Hints:
Layout: H1 12-20, E1 36-38, E2 41-42, E3 46-47, E4 60-63, E5 73-77, E6 83-86, E7 92-96, E8 111-120, E9 123-130, E10 135-141, E11 150-152, H2 166-169, E12 175-183, E13 186-193, E14 198-207, E15 211-221, E16 226-227, E17 233-234, E18 246-252, E19 257-262, E20 266-271, E21 279-283, E22 291-294, E23 299-302, E24 317-324, E25 330-336, E26 341-346, E27 353-360, E28 373-376, E29 388-393, E30 410-417, H3 418-425
Parallel strand pairs: 1-27
Antiparallel strand pairs: 2-30, 3-30, 4-5, 5-6, 6-7, 8-9, 9-10, 10-11, 12-13, 13-14, 14-15, 16-17, 18-19, 19-20, 20-21, 22-23, 24-25, 25-26, 26-27, 28-29, 29-30
Amino acid sequence: MRPLSPPSLAGLALSLVAALAPVATASPAQADEVPTVTAKFETPALFDDGDGGNANGDDPAIWVHPAKPGKSLVVATAKEGGLYVYDLKGAQVQHIAAPAAPGEDDEPGRFNNVDLVYGFGGRDLAVVTDRGRDQLRIYAVDPAAPNAPLTDVTDPNAPFVFNDDQEQVNEAKTVYGLATWQDKTGVYALVSRRHQTSIGLLRLTPAPGGKVGYQLIRTLTLPSSFRLPDGTTWTPCLEPGELAQVEGMVVDGGRDVLYAAQEDVGIWRMPADLSGQPVLFDKVREYGVPGVYDPETEECDPGLDRGFGGNHLSADAEGLTIYYRNGGAGYLLASSQGDNTFAVYRREGGNAYIGQFQVGPRRVDGAQTSDGAMAMNVPLGDTFGNGLFVTHDGVNTPEAKDADGEVRENTNFKFVKWEDIARKVGLRVETRGWDPRKQ
């Protein structure tokens, strides 16, 4: 039997929390008013076609080398293209293919999100959600193997996360977003479910032969419809059979708080062990806007915007990351995919909104429609001595065309100096006193 969602955390109670939660009221900035930073480096282009190995960039994670920070790495997902590892100048170090489909009619591996665990059984781990197979894939990081630092240590008996059999997995309601978390009780992965509103808490477990497995502890279900201030009920317009899913997630390791971005709704704050009631502390601008799905265009035709939404996020709300500072201070950053910006909130208190920035072109092109991002305040060599921000770029340029003249879908990852963001948005730089291996 699979654990059931706590009944007190689903349905109307959460809808009321969402409707009543406060939202900051600053006016949305116009694109030309948003502070712009530029990337120092970028990774090679990834192409989502047969010639490119169906590689479609999504989510990065920054691994900090235990002895030589300048040798730290960026691990990034590329869906069916698997996993890529880059050095701090964006050069590819390693590529790991996603698992093949187990049968002719089954889904192949599709790596969606990645996060890091430090010191599990004496090893650092990169944990990946495989949305094609509804599993976690787990890789040990070896600092002494610079040309092939990641090794697959996934328990071969690892179960499906949300499904019971292969037939259910093929229906695509599989594991999706990811955030890792450690406390005195163990090491965990929090995962979301594609096309659903579920979030699951998994405990990582040692397995024979140095492998790593996991066990589902509990699930929580966020609402799929919401009571609006005028007394009506609103449900985000999506394709038939789909609910408003979560993808971007991050755990505040100093507070044991999970932040989860429900793409068409906003950002939730909740206990990391999923034991308490979530609070929707900011909403996308499109929150409350009715829509009708058009099967011919496969798009939603929006109705009248009655002003129930927020001011800082344009759907989809996507990647979340935290920049830590001493004393519990710091910043929560969120990808506002719909307008190609990043919103910045205070880490402490009620997550008050601070400002916005975008990654624009200069030395390399900017970042658009970002899915995932990660900030790190640890000094990482000479170039990123004040910290690093890495973001997915969903529309990489220059564009490339195939033999038939068709434009190839082109993505990659951008590396930005933290001090450039701090200077433009009025944030602080703090690179001492926080150790990712002690969180």
